[in-house]
Write a structure and sequence with these properties.
The protein is α+β, with helices and mostly antiparallel strands. Helix content is 29%, strand content 26%. The chain contains 6 helices and 7 strands. Strands 1-2-3-4-5-7-6 form a 7-stranded mixed sheet, sandwiched between helices. The two termini are 24 Å apart.
Amino acid sequence: MTPSVPESAASAAARASGPEPRFRAAEAADAPAVAALHAASWRRHYRGAYADAFLDGDVVADRETVWAARLAGGRGEHGESGRLTYVCEADGAVVGFVHAVLDEHPRWGALVDNLHVAHGSQRRGIGARLMRLAAQGVAGAAPGSGLHLWVLEQNARAQSFYAALGGTRTERALVPPPGGDPSRLAGSPACLRYVWPAGAALFRG
């Protein structure tokens, strides 16, 4: 499950304040910082979809295990098993990241499995830049591939963000339980698929 980036795609004024962010391919050493940001974003935005017991438990350790494995191969630009991972740094700290899986769907192409921006760094255009980096990385690694992601139905602000980036909503489904454990869900939350076909403006930066 992805993405909970509620900032506007048009945020030039806000972007002008604060240190200039740096975008780069993720490395193995980024795993702890990415995991901490991922856990913090889940706790802030996934409340009501994920069970409180899971979010209030040791979700950081859970994410550390996942990200250590994902980034174990080193740089995430070309990815292990067809994965692409980019991070955004500001003041030496990771404040955002995106993770995409190539050829995840026969029709929709690559999946943006994660997109998160630290709460204090939102509304600076970081999420939009990370999405464009992911799209460009997909275009380079798998020419002709589209891009898609799932967003929580309860997260209307994130849906507006993806629509502003040109995404089209195509379907509704139930949220898969994190780690495959149904007890980590709160009831039966739903998610929505947004898609960008190959050649969409997002791929052109």
